[in-house]
Amino acid sequence: MLKRRRFKQSTSFQERLAEWAKQVRDQADQLPPGIERDKLLKKVSQADTAAHLDEWANSPGLQPPT
C-alpha cells in the first residue's frame, strides 16, 4: 500500500488564500477587459467567498451567515 506524503503548512489557509487571490487579482489587472480577465476575477470572488466561509466555520459562536 502506498503511503500518502504529508506536508505541514507553514501558513494558515486564510493567509494562503489571501495571497493567491492577490496574485490572481494582479494578473487580472494586467489584462485588457475580456473573457480571460472575467475568469480571473470570478476566481478571486470565489476565493473571497471561501475565506468568508472558512472564517465563519471556524468562529467560536458559529453564527448563521448574513
Structure described in brief:
The chain is mostly helical.
Which features does this protein show?
mainly alpha; 2 helices; 61% helix
Instruction: Output the helix-strand order.
Output: HH
Low-confidence stretches: none
Strand content: under 5%
Per the principal axes of the C-alpha atoms, what is the gross shape?
Answer: flat
Distance between the termini: 46 Å
Radius of gyration in whole Å, from Cα? 16 Å
- Counted by DSSP, the helix tally is 2
Helix fraction by DSSP (H/I, runs of at least 4): 55-70%
How many extended strands?
Answer: 0
Alpha-beta content class: mainly alpha
Instruction: Report the biggest beta sheet as strand number plus sense, adding barrel if it closes.
Output: none
What is the residue-averaged pLDDT?
Answer: 88
Description:
The chain has 66 residues and is mainly alpha-helical. It has a domain at 13-57. The chain contains 2 helices and no strands. The radius of gyration is 16 Å and the shape is flat. The mean pLDDT is 88.
Per-chain topology:
Elements: H1 13-29, H2 35-57
Helix pairs in contact: 1-2
